[in-house]
Amino acid sequence: xxxxxxCMSWPMAASSAPAAPTSRWTWNVKAMRGSRRxxxxxxxxxxxxxxxxxxxxxxxxxxxxxxNSMTLALPNPRDExxxxxxxxxxxxxAAQIPxxxxxxPSPYWIGTGGLRLLFVDGRYDAAHSAPGPVMLxxxxxxxxxxxxxxxxxxxxxxxxxPAGDTGSAAxxxxxxxxxxxxxxxxRIMLADGARASIVETHAGDGWSNRLTEIVLGTDARLxxxxxxxxASGFTALRETATAAAGAHLxxxxxxxxxxxxxxxxxxxxxxxxxxxxxxxxxxxxxQQRHDAAVVVRHAALDGVxxxxxxAVADDRATASLAARVEVARDAQKTDGEQSLRGLxxxxxxxxxxxxxxxxxxxxxxxxxxxxVGELDAQALWYLASRGVPPQPARALLTRAFVGDALDGxxxxxxxxxxxxxADLWLxxxx
Length: 430
What we know:
This protein has 430 residues and is mainly beta. It has five helices and 21 strands. The termini are far apart.
C-alpha cells in the first residue's frame, strides 16, 4: 500500500496555546502564516513560482579546497527543500578574516567528567582538550549536500567505540568561531553493543559548517545533544545516521543564539527494531531564521522513530520545521510519531511547520500533530489572578512549552545545562 494525502491549514490570527492534536491519516500538513501590509492574516498563501533550473540557484561560493579551485552554487528559497532558508549572507561570511584572538571556553563546558575537545575557527586546540581515543585529522565523507560538500576532506574528528564498550561520561566538544568560515567533518562509529554520549556546543561569530556521519552497530546506543549558541553569523549542520538492529539514537538540538541556523538530517533505520529519537527546540527573535529539515527512513521491521520539535518565534523572526518519515514496503510494524508545535510570542513573527509521512507498507502505526498558536489567554488570566505579573507569567508558560522538548535528555547535568540556556534566552525575552 502507498498512501500520501496532502492538505493545508492556517492558524487563526488569535489562537490559543498549541494543543497536541494528532491525526493518524492526515498527511503532509503545512501550518503556514500569511501576511498583508495591514498586518492581518492573509486568507491564502501567495502562489509560488516555478523553481528555477539548478544552475541558476542562489549565490556562489568561490574558494580553494585541497589546492583545487572550487565554485559552489548555493540553493535559494526557490529550491523547495530550502524555501524557508536564507543563505545569501554566506559568501560575505566566508570572505571575512577570523579574529584569531584568545578565547575562553570555560563558560561552555558543562562538566560531565568525560573527554573534552575544543575547536577554534575549525582548528583543534590541544591546550584546552583531552581527546582520549578521539582521532584527529583529515576526514573524507561522501556527501551530495550543498553545504556538506565543503566540509568533506577537511580536518575533523573520529570517534570509534569498540564492541561492548559502555563508557558513561559524556564527551564534550566545544566549537568557538571568531569570524570567517570554518568547516569540520566528523564520524561517530559505535560497534555492536557499544554506548557513547556526546555534547556539542557552538559559540562565537561567523559561519560554522559541520558534516557528521553516524554509524550504529547492533544494539549500540548514542546520546547526542547539540547547543547552537553563536552570537552572530550562521551555523549549518548536516548529519547522516544509520542504525542497525536494536540500535538506539537519541538526539536533542537546541538553537537559541542570535545566529541563523540550518539543521539537515537524514536518518535511516537499516536493522530490525532500531529506534531513533531526533528533535529539540528552535528559539528565534529579532529577524533571525532557524530552519530544520529532518528525514527519517524506515527500511526494516519493527522500527520506532520519534520527532518532537518545539519552535518559539518573537519579533519578526522565522522558525521553520520540515519533518519527514518514509516507510519502505518491507518495513512492517513501523511505529513513527511526529509532534511539531510552534509558539508565536508576537503576531509579526512566523512559524512554518511541514510534517510528512510517505508509507509503502500496510502494517504500520504512524501519527503526527502540527499546531501553531499563541500563549493561552486563560492560563495568563489564571496566573494574573494568583498575583503573577504579565511578563513573568509569559516567561513561565513559555518555559513549560520549551521544556517539553528537553525532557528526553537522560543525563541530568546535560539536561539542566540545556534548560538553563533556554531560561537565559527566555529571561531576555521577558
